[in-house]
Design a protein that fits this description.
With 372 residues, the protein is mainly alpha-helical. It has helices at 30-49, 54-59, 63-66, 70-74, 80-96, 101-129, 139-147, 163-180, 186-206, 211-216, 221-236, 240-261, 270-288, 299-328, 333-368. Helix 9 (186-206) packs antiparallel against helix 11 and helix 9 (186-206) packs parallel to helix 12 (240-261). The protein is globular. The protein starts with 29 loop residues before the first helix and ends with a helix. Residues 1-26 have low confidence and may be disordered.
């Protein structure tokens, strides 16, 4: 999920391979803030009403029986992750332009960790109060989860959604070493997208379980490369090369999403999966082409700020709240759903206001300070 503040970085000291358009304003892309929250709400809808498992215990039955109409749409909510990844490619390219590798690392760490640590504490506390919703967490598991390296270490995840952070971290590492370290330019971004796409295709042909698949993530690479190329469209204007990368990324993304989410007899329709993926690319393309300047409502800034903490806390803590409200207090399903959703947005605002806002900059300054 993209976490950087979507402001247009000034032109770097190093002249890019293609000159930036003159007079390109430094402006916040508010539409991206709205799209990020929309993606988070899609995932939330999937976790509350579009899947079985633990949430079925909270509702006391499968959500498809609780929400027979809503669940038909909610099963596609997991595709909000693909939208996140397209946005992430766009925003990371934008926010890294003109930055050093150290700046890039510090901004990512300061943005990711404070809210993540608080979410871990909250979910761990919930696991102690109501283990039926969240499995009790051992101290060693909790400590490894603090590092965000639980998946490669084979440690159970405290936050169910944090698998996407491991995907993002690998993307950051690849992009930082290949593009940010030597300096972000048009040519380097194009070369990175081209080489990554080729590596993803070759690793898929090589089969499952290879180191190449772990590194290049063929199932997710098309969304990141599509987002990177769309930022080139936004910064330098449209052209055959960046739009060609976007088109190829979209085609490969259709394939990976359909292959991963559709099986004969499942609740999802492959054509709807492809439609949602297409819309994910299309809405970010609209931002890149400047078609969303009309979306200038100030509340979109708040929407963007709430996205990351909301994404972290909504799943397990939301299931906890649903179980208490619906099974414990007997509140009907729809009021329970709306109260839970509102409560998670409120909790996200508290985390943003009292954790991210004060402690993110402090962590960044601490990482910047040189040893005496």
């Amino acid at each position: 999920m993209s976490l950087a503040t979507p402001t247009l970085a000034p032109s770097p000291a190093k002249i890019p391979a293609v000159p930036a358009p003159p007079g390109h304003p430094r402006t916040r892309l508010l539409a991206l803030d709205g799209l990020r929250l929309a993606a988070a709400l899609m995932v939330c809808l999937y976790h509350y009403a579009g899947r079985g498992g633990v949430v079925s215990a909270s509702w006391h039955q499968n959500p498809e029986h609780v929400f027979p109409t809503l669940s038909r749409a909610a099963v596609y909510g997991c595709l909000g992750v693909e939208l996140f990844f397209v946005i992430s490619g766009f925003v990371i390219c934008m926010s890294s332009w003109g930055r050093s590798l150290g700046d890039f690392f510090r901004s990512r760490a300061a943005r990711l960790y404070p809210a993540y640590w608080v979410a871990l504490v909250l979910v761990t506390a919930a696991s102690l109060v109501l283990p039926a919703v969240v499995r009790a967490v051992r101290p060693d598991e909790f400590l490894v989860n603090l590092t965000m390296l639980q998946q490669p270490m084979g440690v159970p995840r405290v936050l169910g959604v944090c698998w996407t952070l491991w995907v993002e971290v690998r993307f950051y590492a690849l992009f930082a070493l290949a593009v940010v370290l030597p300096g972000v330019t048009y040519r380097r971004v194009v070369l990175f997208c081209s080489v990554w796409t080729l590596a993803a295709v070759l690793s898929t042909a090589a089969g499952d379980g290879s180191w190449a698949q772990l590194l290049v993530m063929p199932q997710y690479a098309p969304y990141f490369t599509g987002g990177l190329a769309l930022y080139l469209v936004h910064r330098f204007g449209g052209g055959l090369l960046p739009w060609g990368i976007v088109t190829l990324s979209w085609i490969l993304g259709l394939r990976t999403a359909t292959e991963g989410l559709w099986r004969p007899g499942t609740a999802r329709d492959p054509y709807v999966v492809m439609l949602v993926v297409t819309l994910a690319f299309a809405v970010v393309a609209a931002v890149a082409a400047g078609r969303t300047r009309w979306a200038a409502w100030p509340w979109l800034t708040t929407a963007g700020a709430l996205t990351y903490p909301f994404y972290l806390v909504h799943e397990h803590i939301g299931w906890f709240v649903i179980r208490v409200l619906h099974r414990g207090w007997g509140i009907p399903p729809w009021p329970t759903l709306l109260i839970t959703l509102s409560g998670m947005l409120g909790l996200a605002w508290l985390i943003h206001r009292f954790v991210e806002t004060p402690f993110g900059p402090r962590l960044k300054r601490a990482l910047t300070a040189k040893a005496s």
